[in-house]
Amino acid sequence: METLESLRALYDQPFLPLVTRARATHIAHHPESEVQRCELVNIKGGSCPEDCRYCAQSARYTTGLVPHGLLDIPSLRRAAEEARAHGATRLCLGAAWRGLKERDGRLEEVCRLVEAIRGEGLEICVTLGLLGPTAARRLREAGVTIYNHNLNSGPSFYRQVATTHTFADRLSTLRVAQEAGLRLCSGGILGMGESVDDRLEMVLALLELDPAPESVPLNLLVPIPGTPLASQPPVNPFDLIRLISVTRIVLPRSRIRLAAGRRSLSPEAQMLCFLAGANSLFVGERLLTTPNASFDADHALFETLGIEPSAAKSCTSSPI
Ligand code: SAM
Ligand code: DTB
Ligand code: SF4
């Protein structure tokens, strides 16, 4: 069983042996040139009551974001078509609110959106904040197969990430989603001022989930003017590559997603991330509120590396 000390020992070994071991683990469990493409749609933007210190969508900070209500069905259908045109096999619908309570009218509205695009050949992931059991079961029934809810950091640092909910609240949502038959997508953000141990504590918490998350997004903080974390210094890409390597070694079957902040990485740094075990990314012009890596840059990178897109899993597939 892994401990913080064993993860730290892995993390601190010399860079090349660490990446070599991660690569060997990767090849033993995944097709070596396959990278999953996902696309995000912000189905409800801004005015969020939570105080996550990194987030453009919190109502507590003046970020210049123009809030919008729930997306309509034709706009979502168009977004799904665009995602398919970009080669995405998974669509992730995000909403800026605290979560969905039981008997919340917004739940049925989200389910109608999901039902409108199920059967389009895309895996449907949603990221709707804190979740109760009835809402989780209803989402599963509507056609959602994956729930994204990031732990974002380790438990010791979490109080410095947000105060309006706790790390335990986030963990409990993950368990609720799992119990409803949803596969999990959960990871975090690097660059909020946390230590390496905080990042490894997060990996340890992901490891304790049973089954392990199907995907682990690793975001680099995108500094948003107006938020408390606007002036954080950028993360050293080698620290990201080390964390990807450790995550790959201890979660051999999970997909590791290079998520927000990818556009700040050079093609060479991204290549090292793939070598260390990253095998998923976001395509499309935008993430939720910020620009993503450009289509042309991605096209050139995929060509250079001979990266192949993954096939979508069936909507009824069981947890890994
Ligand atoms: N409200 C839901 C929640 O908090 O889970 C879903 C939307 S939230 C924007 C989804 C995730 O995006 C966050 O948990 C965080 O990991 C990531 N994220 C948000 N803003 C970010 C930023 N500025 N830089 C990097 N990642 C960010
Ligand atoms: C994840 O880990 N990152 C995505 C998705 N899952 C929901 C969101 C990134 C958001 C980046 C900042 C923004 O665009 O507002
Ligand atoms: Fe709200 Fe999610 Fe942003 Fe936190 S991360 S402020 S819960 S939208």
Structure keywords:
binds S-adenosylmethionine, alpha/beta, disordered C terminus, two-stranded parallel sheet, ten-stranded parallel sheet, binds iron/sulfur cluster, TIM Barrel, 10 helices, binds 6-(5-methyl-2-OXO-imidazolidin-4-yl)-hexanoic acid, 320 residues
Question: How does this model look, in words?
Answer:
This protein is an alpha/beta fold and 320 residues long. It has one domain (4-300): Aldolase class I (TIM Barrel, Alpha-Beta Barrel). Helix content is 38%, strand content 16%. The protein has ten helices and twelve strands. The protein has helices at 4-12, 15-29, 73-85, 105-117, 133-142, 167-179, 196-207, 237-250, 267-276, 295-305, and strands at residues 34-44, 90-95, 99-100, 123-127, 130-131, 146-148, 183-185, 188-190, 215-220, 255-258, 280-282, 308-309. Strands 1, 2, 4, 6, 7, 8, 9, 10, 11 and 12 form a ten-stranded parallel beta sheet that branches. Strands 3-5 form a two-stranded parallel sheet. α2 crosses α8 (237-250), α4 runs parallel beside α5 and α8 (237-250) packs parallel to α9. The protein is globular, with a radius of gyration of 18 Å. It starts with a helix and ends in an 11-residue tail after the last strand. Bound molecules: S-adenosylmethionine (SAM), 6-(5-methyl-2-OXO-imidazolidin-4-yl)-hexanoic acid and iron/sulfur cluster (SF4).
